[in-house]
Design a protein that fits this description.
Rossmann fold; alpha/beta; 7-stranded mixed sheet
């Protein structure tokens, strides 16, 4: 996976915009939507009002730019050194590390919130549960692990994945499968909902549709089991 993303170090946003162009929105619209949902989850599920947060698979730090005002401290890790350098330049308030994709470079229970946004489908299926277990390990017992993923039930999502250069050959994960992986990684599922039903901002409507398996993406969030 390291070499895969190093190839797109300078073209990541352009490749993404090219894949989603048919929907009429640039990548920033979708990044904003997921950042807002993550902030809302943290407010509802994390005791700390200014959580210490970890972005696993941070890429170039697109989401982090939106989160910095809402957290007390923000860290990020990625297997691509080039992506990490770009994230550091874009978000000097955050702290970034390159990691080996196996063990997160932090101690047990260091974070109130650990999250991964559209990362897990790039991980070999055999490595998904261990990655979630690592996210659980570095999260406090009263903290939250949140994972956003593409919804394979949505035909437009599948179209985006097929046309996105850095999604070549990936295996998407359904929401129920991800919930099972959470439990296997000793995470108790606290939230599981769909999002991004429309290519425009309609949060009041979307809040009433979170159960409907037609959103372009979904999020599963859970607590480490003590």
């Amino acid at each position: 996976m390291t070499a895969e993303f190093d190839r797109f170090e300078q073209t990541y946003e352009a490749e993404l915009d090219d894949a989603i162009a048919f929907a009429g929105q640039e990548h920033g619209f979708y990044v904003d939507a997921k950042a807002r949902r993550l902030v809302d989850l943290a407010r509802r599920r994390v005791a700390a009002t200014r959580p210490r947060a970890l972005d696993v698979g941070c890429g170039v730090g697109l989401t982090d730019a939106r989160l910095v005002p809402h957290v007390g401290e923000l860290h990020g890790v990625d297997v691509s050194a080039g992506m990490v350098e770009r994230a550091r330049a874009a978000n000097p308030q955050a702290r970034y590390e390159v990691y080996d994709g196996a063990r997160l470079p932090y101690g047990d229970g260091e974070f109130d919130l650990a999250f991964a946004i559209c990362v897990l489908h790039h991980v070999d299926p055999a490595g998904r549960r261990p990655l979630l277990a690592e996210m659980a390990r570095v999260t406090k017992p009263d903290g939250l692990v949140a994972v956003f993923e593409h919804n394979p039930l949505n035909p437009l999502t599948r179209r985006v994945v097929r046309s996105c250069a850095f999604d070549e050959g990936v295996e998407l994960i359904g929401r129920r499968e991800l919930e099972q992986l959470f439990r296997a990684a000793s995470l108790t599922v606290a939230d599981s909902e769909y999002l991004l039903f429309f290519p425009w901002r309609a949060e009041a409507v979307e809040r009433r549709l979170t159960w409907l398996p037609l959103g372009a993406q979904y999020v599963v969030a859970g607590r480490p089991q003590s």
